[in-house]
Specification:
extended, two-stranded antiparallel ribbon, mainly alpha
Length: 112
């Protein structure tokens, strides 16, 4: 969905994600120490606010910690569905037969 949002909606997503991140109690030392060294920085990054706007091709998740967060995301998504559907439909009309969109990228299917 990230690839199909307009810039204003993407800024709203980043803001909502950062609100959720700020509400989190912080990383667990026990979980951090149980992870392989290779994954520790990835885990710690989950608790850092988003400071740079991810590119449209990025897969940005919608973070939540509470039922209220999930409800807010549901309202957000529902309010954007008409524009996302219109943009998706417009993109599909530009594709050649045998192609489809996956994660905002055109993919051509070849039988055989």
């Amino acid at each position: 969905m990230w690839a199909l949002l307009d810039d204003l909606s993407r800024r709203a997503v980043v803001h909502m994600n950062n609100d959720v991140i700020a509400s989190l109690p912080g990383p667990s030392h026990e979980i951090l120490m149980s992870l392989p060294e290779l994954l520790r920085s990835t885990y710690l990054n989950l608790f850092k606010p988003i400071t740079d706007m991810p590119p449209s091709g990025h897969d940005l998740g919608f973070r939540y910690a509470t039922k209220a967060d999930a409800t807010a995301w549901g309202d957000f998504i529902a309010s954007r569905l008409p524009s996302v559907d219109a943009r998706s439909s417009g993109l599909l009309k530009t594709l050649d037969a045998g192609t489809s969109l996956m994660d905002g990228r055109a993919v051509k299917y070849v039988s055989g």
